[in-house]
# Entry
Amino acid sequence: MPQTPLNDVHARLGASFTDFGGWQMPVRYSSDLAEHEAVRTAAGLFDISHMAEIFVSGENAAAFLDYALVGQASLIKISRAKYSLIVRTDGHVIDDLIVYRLNDDEFLIIANAGNRHAVFDSLSERAATFGFAGLADRSDEFALLAIQGPNATAILQSLTATDLGALPYYSIAAGVIAGKEIYFCRTGYTGEDGFELLFEAAQAERIFELLLEKGKPQGLLPAGLACRDTLRLEAGMPLYGHELDLETNPFEAGLGRVVKLDREADFVGKAALAELANAPQKKQLVGLVGEGRRAARAEYQLFANESSTEPIGTITSGALAPTLGYPVAMAYVNPDFAQIGTTVSCDIRGNRLDMTVVKLPFYKREN
Amino acid sequence: MSNPTNLHYTKEHEWVSIEGDVATIGITAYAAEKLGDVVFVDLPKVGTSTTYMKICGEIESTKSVGELYAPLDGEVIEANDQVVAAPELVNQDPFGAGWLIKVRFSALPELMTAAEYDAITGEG
# Structure
Protein backbone atom coordinates (compact mmCIF):
# COMPACT_ATOMS: atom_id res chain seq x y z
CA MET A 1 0.00 0.00 0.00
CA PRO A 2 1.43 3.43 -0.86
CA GLN A 3 2.67 5.56 2.02
CA THR A 4 3.34 9.27 2.15
CA PRO A 5 6.91 10.58 2.57
CA LEU A 6 6.03 11.14 6.25
CA ASN A 7 5.16 7.57 7.13
CA ASP A 8 8.21 7.08 9.39
CA VAL A 9 7.50 10.34 11.21
CA HIS A 10 3.91 9.28 11.87
CA ALA A 11 5.08 5.95 13.24
CA ARG A 12 7.61 7.71 15.50
CA LEU A 13 4.83 9.96 16.78
CA GLY A 14 2.81 6.87 17.73
CA ALA A 15 0.14 7.15 15.06
CA SER A 16 -2.46 4.48 14.38
CA PHE A 17 -2.87 3.91 10.67
CA THR A 18 -5.81 3.32 8.38
CA ASP A 19 -6.36 2.62 4.71
CA PHE A 20 -7.74 5.74 3.05
CA GLY A 21 -8.15 6.07 -0.69
CA GLY A 22 -5.74 3.15 -1.04
CA TRP A 23 -3.09 4.84 1.11
CA GLN A 24 -1.71 4.01 4.53
CA MET A 25 -2.56 7.17 6.47
CA PRO A 26 -2.41 8.26 10.12
CA VAL A 27 -5.91 8.03 11.62
CA ARG A 28 -4.90 9.52 14.99
CA TYR A 29 -1.75 10.15 17.00
CA SER A 30 -3.18 10.19 20.51
CA SER A 31 -6.85 11.08 20.79
CA ASP A 32 -9.07 12.15 17.92
CA LEU A 33 -11.11 14.35 20.27
CA ALA A 34 -7.97 16.14 21.49
CA GLU A 35 -6.81 16.61 17.89
CA HIS A 36 -10.24 17.91 16.86
CA GLU A 37 -10.23 20.34 19.79
CA ALA A 38 -6.69 21.51 18.98
CA VAL A 39 -7.75 22.46 15.44
CA ARG A 40 -10.80 24.38 16.71
CA THR A 41 -8.94 26.24 19.48
CA ALA A 42 -5.23 26.29 18.55
CA ALA A 43 -3.84 24.43 15.55
CA GLY A 44 -3.49 21.02 13.96
CA LEU A 45 -0.99 19.72 11.41
CA PHE A 46 -2.20 17.19 8.84
CA ASP A 47 -0.26 15.16 6.31
CA ILE A 48 -2.43 15.09 3.20
CA SER A 49 0.32 14.10 0.79
CA HIS A 50 -1.90 11.31 -0.50
CA MET A 51 -3.88 13.88 -2.47
CA ALA A 52 -3.20 14.24 -6.19
CA GLU A 53 -1.50 17.19 -7.88
CA ILE A 54 -2.20 17.58 -11.56
CA PHE A 55 -0.61 20.44 -13.48
CA VAL A 56 -2.32 21.88 -16.53
CA SER A 57 0.02 24.06 -18.58
CA GLY A 58 0.08 25.55 -22.02
CA GLU A 59 -1.44 28.21 -24.18
CA ASN A 60 -4.92 26.69 -24.16
CA ALA A 61 -4.88 25.60 -20.50
CA ALA A 62 -7.73 27.89 -19.41
CA ALA A 63 -9.92 27.06 -22.39
CA PHE A 64 -9.23 23.36 -21.92
CA LEU A 65 -10.25 23.45 -18.25
CA ASP A 66 -13.39 25.40 -19.14
CA TYR A 67 -14.23 22.43 -21.37
CA ALA A 68 -13.18 19.70 -18.93
CA LEU A 69 -14.73 20.97 -15.66
CA VAL A 70 -18.13 22.36 -14.63
CA GLY A 71 -16.71 25.74 -13.53
CA GLN A 72 -14.95 28.42 -15.54
CA ALA A 73 -11.22 28.23 -14.85
CA SER A 74 -10.67 31.06 -17.34
CA LEU A 75 -12.38 33.44 -14.88
CA ILE A 76 -10.00 32.59 -12.01
CA LYS A 77 -7.50 35.40 -11.43
CA ILE A 78 -3.81 34.55 -11.20
CA SER A 79 -2.92 33.30 -7.68
CA ARG A 80 -6.56 32.60 -6.84
CA ALA A 81 -8.44 29.30 -6.57
CA LYS A 82 -11.91 27.89 -7.14
CA TYR A 83 -13.69 24.78 -5.88
CA SER A 84 -14.90 22.78 -8.88
CA LEU A 85 -16.18 19.41 -10.05
CA ILE A 86 -15.34 17.04 -12.84
CA VAL A 87 -18.42 15.17 -14.05
CA ARG A 88 -19.21 12.46 -16.57
CA THR A 89 -21.19 13.34 -19.70
CA ASP A 90 -24.31 12.26 -17.75
CA GLY A 91 -23.57 14.94 -15.13
CA HIS A 92 -22.59 12.57 -12.31
CA VAL A 93 -19.60 13.48 -10.18
CA ILE A 94 -16.17 11.92 -10.86
CA ASP A 95 -14.48 14.08 -8.21
CA ASP A 96 -14.47 17.41 -6.43
CA LEU A 97 -11.34 19.49 -6.96
CA ILE A 98 -9.60 22.70 -6.11
CA VAL A 99 -8.26 24.55 -9.15
CA TYR A 100 -5.47 27.07 -8.57
CA ARG A 101 -4.36 29.48 -11.24
CA LEU A 102 -0.58 29.78 -11.00
CA ASN A 103 -0.14 31.84 -14.16
CA ASP A 104 -2.01 32.93 -17.22
CA ASP A 105 -1.40 29.55 -18.80
CA GLU A 106 -0.69 27.31 -15.80
CA PHE A 107 -3.13 25.71 -13.38
CA LEU A 108 -2.79 23.26 -10.50
CA ILE A 109 -5.58 20.83 -9.67
CA ILE A 110 -5.74 19.12 -6.28
CA ALA A 111 -7.86 15.96 -6.50
CA ASN A 112 -8.78 13.26 -4.00
CA ALA A 113 -6.24 10.46 -3.55
CA GLY A 114 -8.71 7.71 -4.36
CA ASN A 115 -9.75 9.46 -7.57
CA ARG A 116 -6.28 10.33 -8.81
CA HIS A 117 -6.38 7.97 -11.77
CA ALA A 118 -10.07 8.50 -12.56
CA VAL A 119 -9.49 12.25 -12.71
CA PHE A 120 -6.27 12.07 -14.68
CA ASP A 121 -7.72 9.54 -17.15
CA SER A 122 -10.83 11.66 -17.67
CA LEU A 123 -8.76 14.80 -18.16
CA SER A 124 -6.47 12.96 -20.59
CA GLU A 125 -9.42 11.78 -22.71
CA ARG A 126 -10.87 15.27 -22.72
CA ALA A 127 -7.46 16.72 -23.63
CA ALA A 128 -7.27 14.38 -26.62
CA THR A 129 -10.73 15.47 -27.78
CA PHE A 130 -9.96 19.13 -27.20
CA GLY A 131 -6.49 18.98 -28.71
CA PHE A 132 -4.62 19.94 -25.55
CA ALA A 133 -1.29 18.44 -24.54
CA GLY A 134 -0.24 20.06 -21.28
CA LEU A 135 -1.35 17.62 -18.55
CA ALA A 136 1.06 16.26 -15.94
CA ASP A 137 0.23 14.11 -12.91
CA ARG A 138 3.01 15.15 -10.52
CA SER A 139 1.47 13.73 -7.35
CA ASP A 140 4.52 11.65 -6.48
CA GLU A 141 6.83 14.66 -6.53
CA PHE A 142 5.03 16.59 -3.81
CA ALA A 143 4.23 16.55 -0.14
CA LEU A 144 1.07 18.37 0.95
CA LEU A 145 0.49 19.46 4.54
CA ALA A 146 -2.43 21.30 6.07
CA ILE A 147 -1.96 23.56 9.07
CA GLN A 148 -5.36 24.58 10.35
CA GLY A 149 -6.78 26.47 13.30
CA PRO A 150 -6.84 29.95 14.83
CA ASN A 151 -3.07 29.85 15.55
CA ALA A 152 -2.08 28.40 12.16
CA THR A 153 -1.20 31.70 10.50
CA ALA A 154 0.97 32.90 13.40
CA ILE A 155 2.86 29.59 13.58
CA LEU A 156 3.49 29.53 9.86
CA GLN A 157 4.38 33.23 9.75
CA SER A 158 7.25 32.61 12.19
CA LEU A 159 8.87 30.46 9.48
CA THR A 160 8.52 32.61 6.39
CA ALA A 161 8.99 36.13 5.04
CA THR A 162 5.87 35.84 2.86
CA ASP A 163 3.15 38.09 4.28
CA LEU A 164 0.57 35.41 5.00
CA GLY A 165 -1.99 37.84 6.38
CA ALA A 166 -2.18 39.42 2.93
CA LEU A 167 -3.27 36.17 1.29
CA PRO A 168 -7.04 35.99 0.84
CA TYR A 169 -9.04 32.80 1.35
CA TYR A 170 -8.74 30.53 -1.71
CA SER A 171 -5.45 31.97 -2.93
CA ILE A 172 -1.94 30.64 -3.51
CA ALA A 173 1.50 32.22 -3.20
CA ALA A 174 5.00 30.92 -3.79
CA GLY A 175 7.39 31.48 -0.89
CA VAL A 176 10.20 29.96 1.13
CA ILE A 177 10.46 27.96 4.37
CA ALA A 178 13.89 26.91 5.67
CA GLY A 179 15.45 27.81 2.33
CA LYS A 180 13.03 25.62 0.39
CA GLU A 181 10.44 26.73 -2.12
CA ILE A 182 6.89 26.20 -1.05
CA TYR A 183 3.39 27.06 -2.18
CA PHE A 184 1.17 28.57 0.50
CA CYS A 185 -2.49 27.86 -0.26
CA ARG A 186 -5.04 29.52 1.99
CA THR A 187 -7.53 26.68 1.92
CA GLY A 188 -8.59 23.85 4.16
CA TYR A 189 -11.10 21.19 5.00
CA THR A 190 -11.79 21.83 8.68
CA GLY A 191 -13.96 24.95 8.92
CA GLU A 192 -11.01 26.85 10.41
CA ASP A 193 -8.61 29.35 8.91
CA GLY A 194 -5.33 27.90 7.76
CA PHE A 195 -3.04 26.90 4.95
CA GLU A 196 -2.16 23.96 2.81
CA LEU A 197 1.54 23.73 2.00
CA LEU A 198 2.77 22.16 -1.20
CA PHE A 199 6.46 21.39 -1.67
CA GLU A 200 9.05 18.89 -2.83
CA ALA A 201 8.45 15.47 -1.22
CA ALA A 202 12.10 15.16 -0.14
CA GLN A 203 11.59 18.10 2.29
CA ALA A 204 8.56 16.56 3.96
CA GLU A 205 10.14 15.34 7.22
CA ARG A 206 12.13 18.51 7.76
CA ILE A 207 9.20 20.88 7.23
CA PHE A 208 6.70 18.73 9.16
CA GLU A 209 9.02 18.57 12.17
CA LEU A 210 9.83 22.28 11.97
CA LEU A 211 6.10 23.09 12.05
CA LEU A 212 5.53 20.71 14.97
CA GLU A 213 8.37 22.31 16.92
CA LYS A 214 7.29 25.92 16.20
CA GLY A 215 3.65 25.08 16.77
CA LYS A 216 3.95 23.16 20.01
CA PRO A 217 4.13 26.24 22.29
CA GLN A 218 0.98 27.48 20.56
CA GLY A 219 -0.98 24.30 21.13
CA LEU A 220 -0.43 22.67 17.74
CA LEU A 221 -0.92 18.90 17.59
CA PRO A 222 -0.26 16.51 14.74
CA ALA A 223 -3.75 15.57 13.58
CA GLY A 224 -5.02 12.44 11.86
CA LEU A 225 -7.77 11.61 9.43
CA ALA A 226 -10.28 10.72 12.19
CA CYS A 227 -10.49 14.31 13.37
CA ARG A 228 -10.20 15.62 9.81
CA ASP A 229 -13.47 13.77 9.13
CA THR A 230 -15.34 15.13 12.18
CA LEU A 231 -14.00 18.63 11.48
CA ARG A 232 -15.15 18.65 7.86
CA LEU A 233 -18.49 17.11 8.85
CA GLU A 234 -19.17 19.89 11.37
CA ALA A 235 -18.20 22.36 8.66
CA GLY A 236 -20.71 20.72 6.28
CA MET A 237 -18.11 19.86 3.65
CA PRO A 238 -18.69 16.90 1.34
CA LEU A 239 -16.37 13.89 1.23
CA TYR A 240 -16.11 11.98 -2.03
CA GLY A 241 -17.43 8.45 -1.57
CA HIS A 242 -19.93 9.71 1.01
CA GLU A 243 -21.76 12.84 -0.20
CA LEU A 244 -20.40 12.66 -3.75
CA ASP A 245 -20.13 9.74 -6.14
CA LEU A 246 -20.97 8.52 -9.63
CA GLU A 247 -24.64 8.18 -8.61
CA THR A 248 -24.91 11.84 -7.65
CA ASN A 249 -25.26 15.05 -9.63
CA PRO A 250 -24.07 18.47 -8.39
CA PHE A 251 -27.61 19.79 -7.81
CA GLU A 252 -28.52 16.89 -5.53
CA ALA A 253 -25.35 17.61 -3.57
CA GLY A 254 -26.25 21.27 -3.14
CA LEU A 255 -23.36 22.27 -5.41
CA GLY A 256 -25.35 23.83 -8.22
CA ARG A 257 -23.48 27.08 -7.59
CA VAL A 258 -20.23 25.65 -8.96
CA VAL A 259 -21.86 24.59 -12.24
CA LYS A 260 -21.61 27.42 -14.76
CA LEU A 261 -24.26 26.69 -17.37
CA ASP A 262 -24.60 30.27 -18.52
CA ARG A 263 -21.83 30.24 -21.13
CA GLU A 264 -21.71 29.60 -24.84
CA ALA A 265 -18.88 27.13 -25.12
CA ASP A 266 -19.62 23.48 -24.60
CA PHE A 267 -18.18 21.55 -21.66
CA VAL A 268 -18.30 17.92 -20.66
CA GLY A 269 -21.65 17.25 -19.01
CA LYS A 270 -23.25 20.53 -20.11
CA ALA A 271 -26.29 19.07 -21.88
CA ALA A 272 -27.06 16.65 -19.06
CA LEU A 273 -26.52 19.26 -16.36
CA ALA A 274 -28.73 21.80 -18.17
CA GLU A 275 -31.51 19.25 -18.12
CA LEU A 276 -30.86 18.17 -14.51
CA ALA A 277 -30.81 21.79 -13.32
CA ASN A 278 -34.47 22.22 -14.27
CA ALA A 279 -35.74 18.73 -13.42
CA PRO A 280 -37.05 17.58 -10.05
CA GLN A 281 -34.19 15.87 -8.18
CA LYS A 282 -34.43 12.27 -7.00
CA LYS A 283 -32.65 13.07 -3.75
CA GLN A 284 -31.36 16.07 -1.86
CA LEU A 285 -28.42 16.43 0.51
CA VAL A 286 -29.45 17.75 3.93
CA GLY A 287 -27.93 18.37 7.34
CA LEU A 288 -29.53 16.58 10.29
CA VAL A 289 -29.19 17.10 14.03
CA GLY A 290 -30.40 14.90 16.86
CA GLU A 291 -30.43 14.85 20.63
CA GLY A 292 -28.52 12.66 23.05
CA ARG A 293 -25.13 11.11 22.38
CA ARG A 294 -25.86 8.28 20.00
CA ALA A 295 -24.53 8.95 16.51
CA ALA A 296 -26.43 8.34 13.28
CA ARG A 297 -23.71 6.95 11.06
CA ALA A 298 -23.08 6.49 7.34
CA GLU A 299 -25.51 4.07 5.64
CA TYR A 300 -28.13 4.17 8.41
CA GLN A 301 -31.62 4.56 6.95
CA LEU A 302 -34.10 7.37 7.46
CA PHE A 303 -37.88 7.17 7.70
CA ALA A 304 -40.76 9.66 7.67
CA ASN A 305 -41.55 8.95 11.33
CA GLU A 306 -40.88 6.56 14.16
CA SER A 307 -43.39 3.94 13.05
CA SER A 308 -42.73 4.13 9.31
CA THR A 309 -40.81 1.28 7.70
CA GLU A 310 -40.55 2.81 4.21
CA PRO A 311 -37.07 4.42 3.84
CA ILE A 312 -37.00 8.05 2.67
CA GLY A 313 -33.26 8.54 2.83
CA THR A 314 -29.83 7.38 3.91
CA ILE A 315 -27.14 8.94 6.10
CA THR A 316 -23.90 9.62 4.19
CA SER A 317 -21.74 10.83 7.13
CA GLY A 318 -22.55 11.11 10.80
CA ALA A 319 -20.94 11.44 14.21
CA LEU A 320 -21.42 12.78 17.68
CA ALA A 321 -20.06 16.24 16.81
CA PRO A 322 -17.07 16.83 19.11
CA THR A 323 -17.34 20.65 19.11
CA LEU A 324 -21.13 20.76 19.33
CA GLY A 325 -21.78 17.82 21.67
CA TYR A 326 -24.79 16.42 19.82
CA PRO A 327 -25.23 14.04 16.87
CA VAL A 328 -24.97 15.57 13.41
CA ALA A 329 -25.22 13.91 10.03
CA MET A 330 -25.42 14.58 6.35
CA ALA A 331 -27.92 12.53 4.41
CA TYR A 332 -29.61 12.14 1.07
CA VAL A 333 -33.38 12.30 1.45
CA ASN A 334 -36.39 12.29 -0.80
CA PRO A 335 -36.80 16.02 -1.65
CA ASP A 336 -40.22 16.02 0.06
CA PHE A 337 -38.31 15.72 3.35
CA ALA A 338 -35.56 18.25 2.61
CA GLN A 339 -37.25 21.36 4.05
CA ILE A 340 -35.45 22.97 6.98
CA GLY A 341 -37.26 21.97 10.18
CA THR A 342 -38.59 18.64 8.88
CA THR A 343 -38.34 15.82 11.42
CA VAL A 344 -37.25 12.39 10.23
CA SER A 345 -36.56 9.15 12.08
CA CYS A 346 -33.18 7.39 11.87
CA ASP A 347 -32.80 3.67 12.48
CA ILE A 348 -29.71 3.31 14.68
CA ARG A 349 -29.13 -0.44 14.83
CA GLY A 350 -32.76 -1.11 15.71
CA ASN A 351 -33.38 2.00 17.83
CA ARG A 352 -35.05 5.07 16.37
CA LEU A 353 -33.68 8.60 16.79
CA ASP A 354 -35.62 11.68 15.72
CA MET A 355 -33.49 14.06 13.69
CA THR A 356 -34.31 17.51 12.34
CA VAL A 357 -33.27 18.94 8.99
CA VAL A 358 -31.08 22.01 9.51
CA LYS A 359 -29.15 24.38 7.28
CA LEU A 360 -25.50 23.44 6.62
CA PRO A 361 -22.91 23.98 7.97
CA PHE A 362 -23.42 22.78 11.53
CA TYR A 363 -20.41 24.78 12.69
CA LYS A 364 -19.13 28.13 11.51
CA ARG A 365 -16.14 29.87 13.07
CA GLU A 366 -16.79 33.27 14.56
CA ASN A 367 -14.31 35.52 12.74
CA MET B 1 0.18 -1.70 27.44
CA SER B 2 0.22 -5.14 28.98
CA ASN B 3 -2.78 -7.24 29.86
CA PRO B 4 -3.05 -7.93 33.62
CA THR B 5 -2.36 -11.58 34.38
CA ASN B 6 -5.02 -11.80 37.12
CA LEU B 7 -7.82 -11.30 34.57
CA HIS B 8 -9.57 -13.59 32.07
CA TYR B 9 -10.20 -12.59 28.47
CA THR B 10 -12.44 -13.25 25.46
CA LYS B 11 -11.55 -13.18 21.78
CA GLU B 12 -13.96 -10.23 21.47
CA HIS B 13 -11.63 -8.22 23.74
CA GLU B 14 -13.56 -8.27 27.01
CA TRP B 15 -11.73 -8.77 30.29
CA VAL B 16 -13.30 -10.55 33.25
CA SER B 17 -12.34 -10.30 36.91
CA ILE B 18 -13.77 -13.03 39.13
CA GLU B 19 -14.60 -12.57 42.81
CA GLY B 20 -16.74 -15.37 44.22
CA ASP B 21 -19.81 -15.65 42.00
CA VAL B 22 -19.50 -12.09 40.63
CA ALA B 23 -17.69 -11.21 37.42
CA THR B 24 -16.62 -7.63 36.71
CA ILE B 25 -16.44 -7.04 32.95
CA GLY B 26 -14.80 -4.40 30.79
CA ILE B 27 -13.06 -4.05 27.44
CA THR B 28 -9.30 -4.35 27.13
CA ALA B 29 -6.84 -1.51 26.58
CA TYR B 30 -6.19 -3.01 23.15
CA ALA B 31 -9.89 -2.76 22.24
CA ALA B 32 -10.19 0.77 23.63
CA GLU B 33 -7.15 1.85 21.65
CA LYS B 34 -8.55 0.33 18.45
CA LEU B 35 -11.91 2.06 18.94
CA GLY B 36 -10.43 5.50 19.54
CA ASP B 37 -12.05 8.03 21.84
CA VAL B 38 -15.13 6.45 23.41
CA VAL B 39 -18.02 8.93 23.47
CA PHE B 40 -21.03 6.76 24.33
CA VAL B 41 -21.65 3.49 26.13
CA ASP B 42 -24.93 1.61 26.21
CA LEU B 43 -24.97 -0.97 29.03
CA PRO B 44 -27.55 -3.62 29.92
CA LYS B 45 -29.92 -2.75 32.78
CA VAL B 46 -29.53 -4.26 36.23
CA GLY B 47 -31.60 -7.44 36.41
CA THR B 48 -31.24 -8.42 32.75
CA SER B 49 -29.68 -11.75 31.99
CA THR B 50 -26.60 -12.21 29.85
CA THR B 51 -25.81 -15.09 27.52
CA TYR B 52 -22.31 -16.28 26.75
CA MET B 53 -20.93 -14.51 23.67
CA LYS B 54 -24.19 -12.67 22.95
CA ILE B 55 -24.10 -8.90 22.50
CA CYS B 56 -25.25 -7.10 25.64
CA GLY B 57 -24.09 -3.54 25.09
CA GLU B 58 -22.42 -1.05 22.76
CA ILE B 59 -19.36 1.11 23.00
CA GLU B 60 -19.21 3.96 20.48
CA SER B 61 -16.23 6.07 19.55
CA THR B 62 -16.26 9.04 17.21
CA LYS B 63 -15.33 6.71 14.37
CA SER B 64 -17.00 3.40 15.07
CA VAL B 65 -19.28 1.19 17.12
CA GLY B 66 -17.93 -1.66 19.24
CA GLU B 67 -20.11 -4.39 20.66
CA LEU B 68 -19.92 -5.66 24.19
CA TYR B 69 -20.14 -9.46 24.25
CA ALA B 70 -21.21 -11.17 27.47
CA PRO B 71 -18.30 -13.40 28.51
CA LEU B 72 -20.62 -15.64 30.57
CA ASP B 73 -24.23 -16.55 31.38
CA GLY B 74 -25.61 -14.65 34.36
CA GLU B 75 -27.56 -11.68 35.66
CA VAL B 76 -26.44 -8.06 35.61
CA ILE B 77 -26.21 -6.79 39.20
CA GLU B 78 -24.52 -3.47 38.51
CA ALA B 79 -23.76 -1.19 35.55
CA ASN B 80 -21.04 1.44 35.85
CA ASP B 81 -22.95 4.74 35.89
CA GLN B 82 -19.71 6.68 36.05
CA VAL B 83 -18.60 5.33 32.71
CA VAL B 84 -22.01 6.16 31.21
CA ALA B 85 -21.57 9.75 32.40
CA ALA B 86 -17.89 9.90 31.43
CA PRO B 87 -17.25 7.42 28.57
CA GLU B 88 -13.63 8.61 28.28
CA LEU B 89 -12.91 6.42 31.34
CA VAL B 90 -12.89 3.47 28.95
CA ASN B 91 -9.81 4.95 27.26
CA GLN B 92 -8.21 6.41 30.38
CA ASP B 93 -8.45 3.36 32.63
CA PRO B 94 -9.86 0.38 30.73
CA PHE B 95 -8.88 -2.20 33.35
CA GLY B 96 -9.92 -0.02 36.31
CA ALA B 97 -12.41 2.86 36.52
CA GLY B 98 -13.52 2.04 32.98
CA TRP B 99 -15.16 -1.27 33.97
CA LEU B 100 -18.63 -1.70 32.46
CA ILE B 101 -20.84 -4.25 34.26
CA LYS B 102 -20.90 -6.75 37.12
CA VAL B 103 -22.63 -10.06 36.47
CA ARG B 104 -23.61 -12.80 38.98
CA PHE B 105 -22.97 -16.23 37.47
CA SER B 106 -23.32 -19.87 38.42
CA ALA B 107 -20.90 -21.52 36.01
CA LEU B 108 -17.74 -20.14 34.44
CA PRO B 109 -17.14 -20.86 30.75
CA GLU B 110 -13.67 -21.37 29.39
CA LEU B 111 -11.98 -17.97 28.99
CA MET B 112 -8.51 -17.00 27.84
CA THR B 113 -5.55 -16.34 30.07
CA ALA B 114 -3.56 -13.11 29.70
CA ALA B 115 -0.85 -15.02 27.83
CA GLU B 116 -3.40 -16.46 25.38
CA TYR B 117 -4.95 -13.04 24.89
CA ASP B 118 -1.51 -11.45 24.39
CA ALA B 119 -0.96 -13.95 21.59
CA ILE B 120 -4.06 -12.89 19.63
CA THR B 121 -3.38 -9.17 20.01
CA GLY B 122 0.32 -9.36 19.33
CA GLU B 123 1.20 -8.06 22.81
CA GLY B 124 3.88 -9.33 25.12
About this structure: Residues 280-358 of chain A form a domain with the Elongation Factor Tu (Ef-tu); domain 3 fold (CATH 2.40.30.110). The mean pLDDT of chain A is 97.
